[in-house]
Structures are given as structure tokens and as C-alpha cells.
Structures
1.
Amino acid sequence: MFKSFKYRIYPNKVQKEIMAANFGCTRFVYNHYLDKYIEKAKNDSFTFDYRECLLDLKSLINEFPWLKEAKYSSLYSSIKNLDMNIKRKKVGTLERPRFKSRKFNKNSYHVKNENDSIVYGGKYIFIPGIGKIKTRNTLIQKGKILNATISKTVSDKYFVSLCCRNVQIDKFKKTGKSVGLDLGIKDLVITSDGNKFINERFFDLALPKIARLKRNLSRKSRGGSNYEKARVKLARYQEKVKNRRIDKLHKLSNYVVKSYDIICIEDLDVQKMMTSGTMSRKLADASFSEFVRQLIYKSKWYDKRVIKIDRYFKSSQTCHVCGFEDSGLKDLNIREWTCPQCSTTHDRDINAAINIKVQGLKTINV
């Protein structure tokens, strides 16, 4: 089992300069080969050749000697990331590979664990080429370290993520229960058992303060020290809002995976839903995709099962008692309805969750 352990680190001034050099070198290599790919693709439908770029990397280093400031494995990983992004583009999960901007404050690069050179020591982490870096995280790393990803956030915080293999994860006890989940805006998750978990709407609540901080930033002269202070203040508050949302999703996904063995959900087309101008901000704040992502990887960790049903299944418009379909329920403002055939009164969301569960369990028995 592979698992990553993320730690906040506190580099000194010299270590920050070394990291900045690595960020710049890996960004340059990524943009250089992306530019080559785009130019050749225009002319002769060129397919990105990962090995060809690796062979060319040595000549690129000779042409630009300052690239030697970065570890070779970091430059190698930069090309690998580009290869992965291009493959994602081909399967339609990415619009197009984009150039990395030096003006963007979020940066990262990879370091391979060659000869066990990366060491976690509790109060410090040793990274080759940088040395001992202070950390205050008490999370104990497990398994064998494969590589480390060093990153700097927009709020000027530094982190290192240790990717490990052969990590033993304690399984949750089997409950023998199954559940259907309906995702919504008012209530984030509605279960087929009738439980509702409210959507906290963290961004909506934080919007007035974000607007105030943005106005304060706009009054500062770009490039000045006061501008940088205001930018970091805004970035850290936005990061705080994001952390609140992620924490809520982790607690909720842990509860679901721990309580149920089979989890049935809709295969939502979130990208298409986000094109709605009136709902896009609320959908982004709800983070359906992140919640589903957490459910899927945690179910693999703990030997549970997630089943996705057809996104076009009419879960909200079908009576779970008699199977009658009411096509007049497309209006989302209708939260309760009575089936004209069996006279059962339904809560729209709970009824949908029950239908999702039934439909999901059918796919197992087929």
C-alpha cells in the first residue's frame, strides 16, 4: 500500500534559496519541453516522447549550466510530470498542459530517495541537497520512503510530502451495512438512512472578509513590501477557509467509510454542472469531486466498496415505494412531493438516496 505523509517544514534563509533555485530549474525544464511538444504537435501531430526528452536533458544542462543547481532527479521528475499531464489531456481529463509561471507563488519539486538519503527524524527531516529542515509535526512516517515532494504555498508556507510504500493500514471492522448517498447544496450529504449532513458553506461565510482583504490589497503598490504583506494575509485567510472545508470532508468521508461496507453514489458530471452561472460558486464550495475522491481512496484502504450509478438515473423523480416516475419534479425548489400512484409523501433528497442505494445494489447482483 502506498501512502503519503505531509509535514510542514521551517527552512532557514539559505535553505529557502536552495529551494527557490530548484523551483526555478524544474519550472524551466517543464516549460522548455512543453514548448517543444506544442511546436511539433502543430506541424506533424508529434507524440510526446518521454525517453527522447530524458536523452536531451543532458545537452540542455550543458547549454544552461545553472540547471546544475538542481538535483538531476528533480529535473527528471519534472519531465515525468509533463508526460503525465499530456496523457491526462489525451483522455480528456485536462483541457491542455499549461506553462508554469514564475509569478505564481505556488511551487514544488520532487527528490528521489537514493540510498535512503531522505530521513525523517521527528523534529527534523533530512533532504539531500538541503540538509536538516526543522518540522513540528508529530505524525510518524511508516513504510519505506520512495521520494519527497517539497512545496511552497501561495501563503509562503513550506511543506514536504513523503511518499511511502509497504504501509500497513489497520482495517475498519465490517458492518454489513450498505448506504445510498445523495449530494446537495443545502445539505451536503443525505443518506438513505435519513441522515442529513448540512453544507457549512465556508466560502459564503468568509466572502465579506475576503472582499475586504482584496480591497485592501488593491490599494497597495504592486511589488512593494506592503503589497506582499497584504497578499500573504489574503492568501492565508483563503487557505484557512480551504482547510476548514477539507477538514469537514475528511471527517464526513471517514464516518461514511467506517459505518458502511457498500457505498452507492451518483456519477455526477461536476464539470458540466459548474457551467451553470448561478450555481457554480455554491458547487465549488461544496466540493463534490473532493468528497467522492476521498470516499474512493479510503474505501480501497479499508477494504470497503464504492459503487457509482448512471448519472442519468432519475433518482429524485422516482418513487422508491412503487417505482412511479414524476417528470414534473425537475424544479429543484420542490423539496417534498406525494406520489400520485401510492400516495406516499417523500422528502426529495432521502427518496433519491434510497433509489441510489437500490440501483447500486442491483449492479452487484447482476
2.
Amino acid sequence: MKKLLLASVFLCYLILPIDTDLGWHLRYGQQIFQNHQVFKINQIGFFLTNYQWKHAYSLYQLLTFFLFNYFGFWSLVIGNALLLTTVFWLIIKTFPKSNTLFLALSFIFLFLISLPVTNLGWRSQLFSFLGISLLYFLLLNKKRLFLLPLLFLLWANLHGGFILGFILLFFYLIGKVHKKEKITPLLIIIFVSFLATLINPFGFENYQEIYRHTWYPLNQLIAEWVKPTKISILLIIISVSTLFIGLISQVKINKLLKKKNFIFLFLSYLFFLILALKARRNLAAFGLSSVYLANHLFQFQAKKIRISKIIIFLIFSTSLTWRLTKLPPANPGWSTICENSQWSLPCQATQYLKGNPDLCQNIFNAYEWGGYLAWHLPGRKIFVDGRMPTWSTPSGKSPYTIYLEILQAQSGFEQKLEAYKADCLLIGKNTFLDLELKNNPGYPWEKNYEDEIAILYTLEKQP
């Protein structure tokens, strides 16, 4: 039955990659693969061209480009399914004696609560989801702790969420100290793990970018950093209520505190609960912590429960039916991404620009289109994309805020476009900027191309 459940997980996550950041990740990966070096400065954009961006994506970018370059989109579809199936396999391996009913319910809960992270397919955040799963697995099986440095070496080059791993290690240390166990070997392993994270193209500077993310008000800028939806809040309430029942059902609190790994799992749960309430991108990690703490509290032992078989068969049949009706085409391409993307990508407009190579060099673009344009128009430079919200600017404003001020045609927008040397505007139809230019012909911009999604303005040539 567990194998059938894993097959269900695999089927559910055969998803086309529609993350808007995919394009610029491919550009970075291409640079590493072909030129054996990383982009040290912003060579994709014409805004903040000399900005030195330190990031933890290099291995992810290389892997993504390699898969895409040699095996196409299907490799990213299958890679996504394998990655998330591995997350659930680790849960099974961590609790091999758990009954199938608990595992089935855990999958349903994890699938629903992690949708804000997993619904876009292959993306870097999923590697932190996997990293957290691996860390739980290693910490709850102490004989494998020597693998921690290797985990952090890889994690620090896949996604900046590796910092969460050190917070979990801190909670694990608290539990060890509470039980008066020796911590010297663990401290050595943690220190070596920290040194391992410095083996990356930017060294310690990676931590500077992570620090910026801890205080920057991204919840005011980016959708996945806003608070969870009502449905997600309901799932959080279900989790908290269930685990509260598990806590109060314990006979003695002192006995519970002495229980192996309880302090570690409980502190981890509280930490991810706080993060989940702040930003929906943290819901997947919260879901994992819920599953691990629930199993620890309730001690779900392997039993033959007839209803578990029924639930797993329902999960499998539902996932199989759903996947057969929404299976990606045999040979998906960028046109398939354009058709399936929720971002209404400027695919036709991009083809128009490809056919006019002398038209436009510096494109002021819609934020969600930045990654797509960065990949498809490598000879041009774009204004903004998903790398940039936390970048520092001379004005102290986020690049995303500056982008919005221009897109909303706020006072002085034309001077900003001139100062940044934009010679094209590729934006959505009927945005504030589009309407401003249409209703006021005095601006030095003329419409060059238009379709159902995008409109292209070019700077009028001076006589």
C-alpha cells in the first residue's frame, strides 16, 4: 500500500514548470555550463547593471539548464515529481512502523497545505522542502549525522533556505542539552556543516543576501510572501487543534518533555507555524513539521486498518484520473508553457521582437515577464525580474517599487525611463502606463506592436 501511495504522489506532481523565474535561472545555468563561471554582476538587465548579486542558486541553475538543455521540459516535469516523491518517501523511512492510514492522511494534508509552493512545478524552493525532509530524517536517525556536512554543502548551492536547517539544528541542540546528553560531537558536525556552506561561488557573502531577506518587507511586494489564504488558515487550525489534542492527552507533561526528540520537534513546529502565518511560501515546511510532530505524539503503529486501504485506493484513482486528463503533451515546448501559464506571458510579442533584431535594446518589462524575456531575448536587456526585489538602490527603494511607480504612471515616470535609458516598453494592455500613453499623445513613445496580452511601445527617434 505504501508503494501505491508513493505512486500517487508521483502522479500528482507531474506538473509543467510555470515558475516565472525559470528563464533567468536558465540564463545563469547556461553561463555556468558553457563558460564555467557565474554572473557576478547584473548582465541580464539595464537597471542596476553593476549590482553584485550574491545568491545560493548556482547548483540549482546548473542542474536546471543541464536537464532542460539535454532532455527538455519533460525532464523538469519528471524531476519535480521525483523530488516531491522523495520527500514523502523520507517520511515513510523515518517512521517505518507508522500505519498506512496516518501516511494517507499526511499526504492529503501535505498536498493541500503546500500548494502555494508546489503548484508552479520545478523551482528552487522545492530543494529547501527536500532539505528540511532530509534533515529531519538524519536527526531522527542519529547514526547518519556524519552526512550533515554533505547535505549543507549541496543545500547552500541549491537554495538560500539552508539557513532554516541551522535553526532546526539549534532546536535539536536544545533538546540534547535538556536531556543532558553529550553535545560536543554534534557541535563539531554543525561547525563542519557551516564551513561546508562556504564552498560556493560567493563564500560568506551568501549570508548577506539571506540577512536582507530576514528584514526586507517582501510581504508588501511579492505574492508568495503575503499571509496565507483562508483555506490555508483553515488547514493550519486543523493542524494546531489536532496536535493540541495530542498534547493534552499526555498523562504527565514532565514525561512528555523527557520523550525522545519531543523538544526538537515541538520547537520546530512552533517556529514553522510562525513562519507560515507570516508568508504562504512557508506552508510546505510547516506541513512537514506537523506530520513529524503528529506521528511523535500519537505514535501511529502499523496496524491493518481496512479504511486505510480504501483511502489509498481513492487517492491513487483520483490522482491517476486527474493526471490522465491533465497530462503534459508528449513533447512540451515554450508554446505549451505559454498556454498553461497563469501569468499570460508575452509569447507573440517576443516572437515579434525576435523577428526584428534591431528593435529595442533596453526593454522596460512587466515584472512577471522578466524571466521569460531574459531567456528568449538574450541579445536584449530587461528592466526587472524575480532576482531583484531586495536589491539596494541609490534611492533606498526596492527595484520592484520603482518598477511599480513607472508602471502606474506616477509623477516623474517619463524622467525615470529616460534616466534608465529604456528604449522600449513591453507591458500588459490597459495598465496605467498603457492608458496614460494612449490618452496623452505628447509622450515620446509610439505603439509598435499589440496583441491580446501585450503592447509594445518604442521610443520615437529624434529628428
3.
Amino acid sequence: MNPKYPNITVQLTGQDGNAFMVLGLCQRAAKEAGLSKEEIDSFLQEATSGDHDHLLQTAMRWFNCQ
């Protein structure tokens, strides 16, 4: 499965895996790539609508996670 934004890479390995760190890394990468506030808000809403596993799955659906 290809992510929605394959050109946006988020380095998750080697990082603290708590939810706030994952959300922050994804949000920073999205901002740096120039995504609109509305699109970032859409990601955040989807990512926080479930448990930690859902958050990671959402990040992988949206971005190129390593």
C-alpha cells in the first residue's frame, strides 16, 4: 500500500514511540512539506480517533514512515 503523501518521510524508528512524539513528528513533517492547515487537521483528527495502534497505522497510510 502506498501512503497518501509518499514524498513526506517521517523517521519513527529510533524515536520515543509515545503518541505525542509520533503526532509531533508527523505534524512537523507535514508542515515542512507545505500541507495546508486543513489537511494537517484532517490527519490529526483521523490519527487521534483510536488507540496507539490506530495512530501508527494512520501515520503509515499518510506518510512514508521509516
